[in-house]
Amino acid sequence: MRFTRRLQTIIFSFSLIPILLVILIAMISFIIRFDPFVRETVAYDADLYASKIQTYIANEFVQMHAILESSTFLSRFESRQAYSSLQENLLYYTEVHPDTKALYVEDNERTILVYHDPLYPARSSHMLDITSLRKGPTQKLVSPVITSPAESAEDVYIMMGMPLYEGEEFEGSIISVLDLSYLRELAHDAGMFESTFRLVIDSHGSIIATNMADKGYWSIQDFDNISDLSDKIEPSYTMENKRGTIEYSFNGERSLGQYQYIPELGWTVFTGIATNEIYLPVLESIPLFLFFTLLFLIALIFSLQFISNQIGHPIQKLINGIEHIRNHDYFHHIELEGNSEFSSIADSFNLLIDHVAKDTQQLRRLNNELDMLTTHIPGGLFKTTLDQAMTFLFVSDPFVSLTGYEKRESLISVTGNSFMETVHPDDRPMVRQIIQHALLNKREGNFEYQTSSDSGFKWISCSFKIHEDTSDGVNPVLYGMAVDATAMHEAFVQLRSSDERYRILLEQTDEVIFEWSVLQNRFLFISRERNWIRMFGRGFPNHANLSLGDLYDMHPDDKVRFIATLKTVIREKIRGTKIEVRLSKAVEEEKHIYIWTRFLLTSMFDNQNQVARIAGRIQDIHEEKIEALRLIGLSQTDPLTSLMNRRGFEASVVRILDLAEPHTNQHVLVMLDADNFKQVNDTLGHLHGDQVLKSIALHVKQVFRNTDIFGRLGGDEFAVCLINFTDMERLEVKINVLIDNLRKDNLPCSIGIAKYPQDGETFTELYTSADHALYVVKNGGKNGYSFAKRGRC
User: What is the arithmetic mean of pLDDT over 62-85?
Assistant: First the structure.
């Protein structure tokens, strides 16, 4: 009973008084902190509203950028189809985003290329000054509020501009006309207080959004008859002071507000509440506090009586039972009636005492098993101090055998009970250094050392951990496990010898060798540096990336083919392939040339039969390739005119037509035949005839583009393939210029013209159509030109 009375006194003293103090302090703290809380809430509302506005505007810029992601840059709009695609993008965007009233795309001279605006031309993108957009690709522009022209009296909007760059070149801009309805909806979001007032103005004081029910307010000055707010948050003031708290009057009531200036938009966001809402909750909460305090006092009195009966008596019996345990009376059981928690504690306590003897026997058995484990594991265990000699505190029998001794006594006697005496003298400094480093860092590590005994030398690998141990009165101590590493060390020596032989073999070849990891996207191995210098005039580049063809400035014409081949090897799991590309070689300090090389690639597969690595060799085949190309050029070139011969011309045109699409490409085949050329040969001789042919070839090349394909098909017959030539009026001008130039040199010719795909989709069809048109000219008096009739001959 003594404990019960003491419990009642303690619970009453330490419950009633502190809780009354806590209630009083809580009320005072609530009163003191409520005003700052209200101010923080208003500031949070302003910050949240500003964040929503910035997020919305940023999202609109992202959507504007997405309009052109499926289209090309402005500088490449060379077809009506490209403009049509962009126009469809604008129309689709305005349908999906009803807030967007209009969209414009301009070039760098502010010419409107594409637009969608029902009010155009009364409203135009030229209403927005985009000078700032030319400063860089990250620039963005938002206009102040614009009210005219509009579809209705309530139609106000802003204009947003974003630059379009290709590389560092300004290509133009995209401009959006954005309705303010969504921003006004945000202003009407519910606030924490009933009198929450929200307002957004631009740099001119025009109202962008507000939650006022009356929609007749267009400028902050419109509030002057009911508020002094225009003097408090004047745009020039908020631009200088980015955020702050102000007190103002509104409809005759004192109010508190928070403003925040958004620099990138030039807008000021404001949130305010009436001051009387700050103190009203405080006054309303006082009666509630008093009511709950009274309830608590009543509940505390009843709880004290209940706790005394339910807790005091059982605890007293538990205390008595513990006193028996302190006197080593393990046969005393605590008896409690009922099914309370204390009864369960007493039963558990009694059960614990019953298991003490049993657990003692179990502990003894576990110690025996531990001794067996330390004796039979494939390694030796030891424990030492961290003094200079590293005195042994424990060694297992396997460790004794590992160090070459038969008995533990022999090890301790010979080594003086010192671990360091088991380490070869040459390895002792290394072992001490590793242990000292571990002691200052992770307190664990490993090392290898030699040990010598009557049985010979051995290599031992040791893993250790340093631990704070007070069981032996020595602190700290090192726990270690040692295993025989002699076989592994000998294998390592053999591997190092094998690597040395491999290195010598690599030094005997002039080729460069590498190994590339597909998964890690990096080189795992490369040849010695001088092999790369001998082949490319400089060392291996650190930024090299095989998967991107980024190696020694690979020729652009070869890079696409190289990347495609590499992807095919990986995707189709090709074991070996070769590819010839041109790489840059430094021949002087600042001079580089392209040389032909051959990549010999071999795939290496992982366990899932996927290409994991690629081994390769690079060979210098420049002279071989140049000679091959020279021979190919000779076989496809007419020696008299230096134009392509018939075989070379036909092969080139066939390649062009194989890649052509009838709906997107338009090529032209021009056939030219010298009039009365046989008469020239017969009267003036073949040498003069050869000179005539050279002159015709020269005139043809002067009139047409260098990118076109020229050929002499045989005798006095010439041909030109105009690639992607769509302007037929310009073509006729060039044909007339050619005929006039030939007439001036007394070189009359007949010309037939066929168009792809109208007059043929193959070389044979185009040739037949052009040849038919040529003979129409021949039969009509010669010295002229004719287009093939529509349809294929």
Answer: 67
